[in-house]
Design goal:
alpha+beta, FAD/NAD(P)-binding domain, 3 domains, about 30% strand, binds flavin-adenine dinucleotide
Length: about 230
């Protein structure tokens, strides 16, 4: 980190820590609420749970019953396993927990030391996450223990969250076009960094569909072609 390349982002550095000049986090709930509102206003948002029987395949094209679209992009996370498409792609579950906890003071910095500790409002901290191969909920006790070791102050547990990430065999995103159906695409396998990687992957897929630009080989679905 002492490398000159990182000088512009480092505020302070010693053997124990690095403090960067800037950092931030995305309030995903808020972001999704506002995005939904934006697209609803434009009449471009429909809430709809489809299953196998809604899928119509004709002339190498896919349609979803009741919807007219030039292109269909599937971004349905781990539920992709339940839908009879993209069967050649191995998608695995990686479960995880995060927690909300209370501390009697606030911290300006985001702490990142295996887990992240983010002071989201007043004395409330969002702390996470754990990783577990599979879909079991192994609970939040380890996160709380780890956070207490880092903070070394009284931390009061408030709430736990559980989720299942969808991960690829090589732990990289899966972006691209179905091997047979010419109007079907996918973004999946975003693993533990879906919030950070989704904008990059969406941009790559958009440019592939609309401008015929290649998708990086590291994230391209074609790496699973046999
Ligand atoms: C505990 C935990 C902490 C995390 N922390 C971070 C982090 O700090 N930073 C980060 O970048 N990432 C983080 N992630 C990872 C991130 O949440 C995921 O990578 C991301 O949510 C994947 O997005 P996705 O859209 O591919 O799938 P999902 O978020 O799973 O979304 C899929 C959506 O498709 C819908 N769907 C499924 N089936 C159907 C169907 N048949 N019809 C209609 N809709 C359907 C689902 O309801 C869901 O809304 C974390 C994950 C967990 C579990």
């Amino acid at each position: 980190m002492s490398n000159v390349k990182f000088q512009s982002i480092i505020k302070e550095i010693d053997e124990k820590k690095v403090i960067t000049k800037k950092s931030g986090y995305l309030d995903v709930k808020k972001y999704l609420t506002h995005t939904r509102k934006y697209f609803k206003k434009k009449e471009r948002y429909h809430r709809y749970k489809f299953d196998d029987k809604d899928i119509i395949i004709e002339n190498n094209e896919i349609r979803l019953k009741g919807f007219q679209a030039k292109h269909i992009v599937m971004c349905i996370g781990i539920d992709q396993k339940k839908i009879n498409l993209f069967n050649k792609i191995d998608i695995n579950e990686v479960s995880g927990n995060s927690i909300l906890a209370e501390l009697n003071y606030s911290i300006k910095n985001i702490i990142n030391n295996k887990i992240s500790i983010v002071n989201t409002s007043k004395n409330i901290f969002h702390i996470g996450s754990s990783y577990n191969n599979g879909s079991d909920n192994i609970g939040h006790s380890k996160i709380l223990d780890d956070a207490r070791k880092i903070i070394k102050k009284k931390l009061i547990f408030k709430k736990s969250f559980f989720g299942i990430r969808s991960s690829s065999k090589d732990r990289r995103p899966i972006v691209g076009k179905h091997f047979q159906l010419k109007n079907l695409y996918i973004i999946n396998g975003l693993g533990s960094k879906g919030i950070s990687q989704a904008p990059y992957c969406s941009d790559k897929l958009f440019n592939y569909i609309e401008k015929n630009k290649q998708i990086d080989k590291e994230i391209n679905i074609n790496r699973f072609k046999t």
